[in-house]
Protein: Medium-chain acyl-CoA ligase
Organism: Pyrobaculum ferrireducens
Amino acid sequence: MEKYQLTLSNLWKYIKEIYGDVEVAYLPPHGNNIRSTYGREYERSLRLADGLRRLGIAPGDRVATLDWNTIWHFDLYWAVPGMGAVLHPLNVRLAPEDLVYIINHAQDKALIYHRDFAPLVEKLKPHLKSVQLYIQISDGLGTATRDPEIEDVIKQGEPKPLPEIGEDTVATIGYTSGTTGKPKGAYFTHRALTLHTLVSAVAFAGFRGFARPECTEEQCAFMQLVPMFHVHGWGTPWTFALLGWRQIYPGRFDPNHTVKLIAEEGVKTMAGVPTMLYMLLTAPEFPKYAEKIKAVRPIFVVGGAALPKELAKKAAEAGFIPRVGYGMTETAPILTLGFFRPTEEIPKEVDRYYDLLTATGLPIPLVDLMVVDEGLRPVPRDGRSVGEIVVRAPWVTPEYLGDVEKTREAWRGGWFHTGDVAVWLPDGRVRIVDRAKDVIKSGGEWISSLQLEDLIMTHPAVAQVAVVGVPHEKWGERPVAVVVLKPGASATEQDIIKHLEKFVEAGKIPKWWLPDKIIFTTQLPLTGTGKIDKKVLREQYKEVLR
Amino acid sequence: MEKYQLTLSNLWKYIKEIYGDVEVAYLPPHGNNIRSTYGREYERSLRLADGLRRLGIAPGDRVATLDWNTIWHFDLYWAVPGMGAVLHPLNVRLAPEDLVYIINHAQDKALIYHRDFAPLVEKLKPHLKSVQLYIQISDGLGTATRDPEIEDVIKQGEPKPLPEIGEDTVATIGYTSGTTGKPKGAYFTHRALTLHTLVSAVAFAGFRGFARPECTEEQCAFMQLVPMFHVHGWGTPWTFALLGWRQIYPGRFDPNHTVKLIAEEGVKTMAGVPTMLYMLLTAPEFPKYAEKIKAVRPIFVVGGAALPKELAKKAAEAGFIPRVGYGMTETAPILTLGFFRPTEEIPKEVDRYYDLLTATGLPIPLVDLMVVDEGLRPVPRDGRSVGEIVVRAPWVTPEYLGDVEKTREAWRGGWFHTGDVAVWLPDGRVRIVDRAKDVIKSGGEWISSLQLEDLIMTHPAVAQVAVVGVPHEKWGERPVAVVVLKPGASATEQDIIKHLEKFVEAGKIPKWWLPDKIIFTTQLPLTGTGKIDKKVLREQYKEVLR
Ligand SMILES: Nc1ncnc2c1ncn2[C@@H]1O[C@H](COP(=O)(O)OP(=O)(O)OP(=O)(O)O)[C@@H](O)[C@H]1O
Ligand SMILES: Nc1ncnc2c1ncn2[C@@H]1O[C@H](COP(=O)(O)OP(=O)(O)OP(=O)(O)O)[C@@H](O)[C@H]1O
Ligand SMILES: [Mg+2]
Ligand SMILES: [Mg+2]
């Protein structure tokens, strides 16, 4: 008998069967709302697949997207892998030359873009070598170019059942954020993404801290805040569909609009990078919806970067339930979640509580994770010994696209090396203390830039901070903090150092961790995904300790 | 990079890592309680695997068990598949000649038996061709034979990590109950069982009616009531371990002991065949624990046979939450569960409520299910058109062991034919109305024996009933009901027919469904798994309409 294939199409068919009536809503800032259902989008995705086929897209072809979190993007998430082609969501915030590099590197055959990016796409076109088909998403606002419009493609397709494909068929590709160097390409099979979806569903349905007990009895709403170009939007479009939740697609991220949606639609769970959470909490319209949001008590899963304690506290005060997720492009993305065991006592003491809350978490099922030394030996689980996180899981990319060298390096010893430096806590949790490439080595010893940043952030005048290692004659490297103050606030280098000295006295950090210099600036350089670009900072300040 | 393998051993390692401290308790009727943990049993299962290896068990060897729901059985569930061998739990209630047939057919190399079955095993030994190793489980009660004792095997083993094995390695085999003919052998790979576990976990953690919302916040207990020789005890030893629940192994099924455990351990979820539920509700000691059980409100998932409405009501009155599961040996077993959609309105009217509650349910994720006519065309979803349930799922056995003919028949057209006859309801649920082999064909039209039984059961004097088709000159077959009355109750053939006529008047069944004869008896013939043996009844009463 033929083996059952783990494919997104099989999941999608199931979702349509069981949850065909459940709402999928597109509620963008511009207000052209679409309230649809899984059943309707199922049919539309079948038409879309057939429409793309008619336009020449064949199994194996790569289809790039440049889009916000729209309902068309949701359809493409199912239609493109479903037809045996490869979905390749592009980060809309990348510089044009990076986009050109990535699209050519990926040999994308089609590019489907939102009208907001029409001018960008016109600029890219002359440089794109493989793209033969452009399709625009006019988003109900009128076409922006002469390329075919996606609704017409849908109309021209027939809702034929998706073809049966093998589970090892590639479903998606994606490129890393390029925080530490040139973006690297990763790819994911249907099998990988189906398993990622199933295990995410177990976690979001059943794990303490992530489950919403009330949501088995009543219909709950999930909002897709993570950009869908960022590692499958962390997989949640698929996960929450499988759980039969209502889903809300808010279009382009707009903090004022988002807080309104949370309040009005009663959004129970969402996820995003720390900056997004910060932007929600400080959105001008937030106070208007504060009461309603408090009543909803939404879970906000922070991932993509560490959750600073200060931000977690601020979020909790505003009625959110902050949670942590950790993952990366290469891992589809989820590796750990900050869930709790049912037996675990959650500490009452504020500091210990937030220590637990903001730790990087526990692996989810099917993730085999270790923190290891250079010899791939597990470091002691003592919360102090530092090592690199290595993993195995069914959803880790098997290789870097077209990069044998980097592949060999990342996979040495049969474990995928994340490049993240962490301590292993006695309870099995990990806590990331740095990226390997950002680690500060002073006199042969490691200093955690993340922990220093976390502490500096507790100073009331500080809005943002990055700590980087700067070359030093005697120690090799010494920490330097680059600080952005809150509007109207003021602080001196000495204020910050004094603030840190309190943590030295309390035994939280050793004295020699104190930065050699505090530099004040008004803006930190960011990467395309909004992460602080420490490469740039290190370059910029490499002379300050000479 | 090597592909991650979906194996029970990988799950087991995860469970140990995350839930090592969670209790697994063995609380048998004889009172030699063992309160252990997943962590401890993990280590013991590694030792057990190594001990078995030392005794000559190699990857691929089949290891049969004859055991109750003991903690050793739990260890064997992990150790035997974990070492690459094949677990083969035997139904302890089968006749000796059936056991001989099955063990020889399966070519079991080892037989691990509970001391209660020592006399049986001594009888079997001379007839077993392949068994080279016998191990006894003395259950803390002293050895019963001279065969090695399992605790010694564990002691002699070292807790070496389980070997890495491929996911397509066979993990278990099992034989069907033999309700409709000779037992047929099915087998399951690590991949099949891992996926069955993950999807069951999604359902038991997140599906309405099955999830226990309070159990994400507090430690809850699951009790393994389904005999572990019956299709992996329905997979729950693995599922609830993955969910990190406390588990209770009650040993041999003893209704008085079970109700005590439910009350004292606060068991939140369990599963079993209808007879087990019935036996709990009528257990002499039940009244003693009635109040406590009401406070716990345990879920009881009934599977293996249809849940009669009367039994569901009785269970609900006693404080249980009755639920339905459907599956079979060939399907690992779960295919459908009687869960509700979050959007679904649960009817208030009693009859419609119990109709919904006792329907066979909705497929769980990754189960592709249809009700089809002879030409493999889906029947209309009208709740009336009758067809056979066919399925595809990753956990359906790929073939019948050593039976090419039956394999071809069951898998014709690429779908596994369950042999179960059902109607498809407009909401996507199925309702089994009969087994294909039990269907009554009168004048070319079908009569549902299950539905007639359900209605006859509502007569206050009736304890048990089986309706079978008996040869009839004019109509081909006509229904005959075989009834067991409650102790002390009385009823005549006319009483029963009159009772049924009320349902004819109410339009629930057509008049021509009324049985031609009601036969009273004191006991119905049962199969080894306690199902009513309609083969025997048909043979016994084949002349009554002549
Ligand atoms: N919860 C978290 N805590 C700390 N760091 C996190 C967390 N989640 C993600 N990260 C960081 O983000 C990284 C993954 O980000 P992503 O895959 O988007 O690209 P990148 O690593 O930033 O870019 P590149 O690999 O191209 O340098 C992780 O390796 C880790 O360093
Ligand atoms: N919820 C349910 N409602 C109705 N029938 C059920 C339900 N669950 C299981 N069954 C019946 O039990 C059967 C599966 O039982 P099992 O695999 O133990 O062996 P069997 O079918 O009784 O024996 P054999 O196949 O040897 O005749 C199903 O095919 C179905 O007929
Ligand atoms: Mg990276
Ligand atoms: Mg059967």
About this structure: Residues 38-54 of chain A form the longest helix (17 residues).
